[in-house]
Design a protein that fits this description.
This protein is mainly alpha-helical. The protein has a domain at 4-41 and 64-118. Helix content is 59%, strand content 0%. The chain is built from seven helices and no strands. Helix 3 (22-40) packs across helix 6 (94-114).
């Protein structure tokens, strides 16, 4: 199984799978944790239903740590593997892979926005930030 604890010791492999070094991963992790906890806390479940138990009650998930969740979504973003293949790598069903991809992608985006690491998508905004360049002949 793909595990953060083992992978973080192998910098080149970590970089190849996630696109980040372990140090960069550690810089992204607090923002991701903050966004994840803000979504997770409260009186409703992830699906919006009223909780039957307190937060943290019930069966413990396979990926208990936020590091494992962030690793999963970064590997998905870097490689875009088939969900069946990714399910085999992380040892969950393709249906659970699909659930986690759709649940974690918006959280990763929010964390990147919070760190101001998202690329500019509006051409008008980009044009305002981009200084006029001199032509090569000048």
């Amino acid at each position: 199984m793909l595990e953060y604890k083992r992978l973080k010791k192998h910098r080149r492999k970590f970089l190849a799978l996630t696109g980040l070094t372990p140090k960069e991963f550690q810089l992204l992790l607090p923002a991701f944790c903050e966004v994840y906890e803000s979504v997770r806390s409260g009186d409703t479940t992830q699906s919006g239903q009223v909780r039957q138990r307190h937060v943290g009650g019930g069966r413990k998930g396979r990926w208990g740590s936020p590091e494992q969740k962030l690793l999963f979504i970064l590997v998905y973003q870097k490689a875009y593997p088939l969900q069946t293949l990714l399910g085999e790598v992380v040892e969950v069903s393709p249906a659970r892979v699909n659930y986690w991809v759709h649940h974690l992608l918006p959280l990763l985006q929010q964390a990147l926005v919070a760190l101001e690491l998202m690329p500019e998508r509006e051409p008008r905004q980009f044009a305002q930030h981009d200084a006029p360049r001199k032509s090569l002949g000048s």
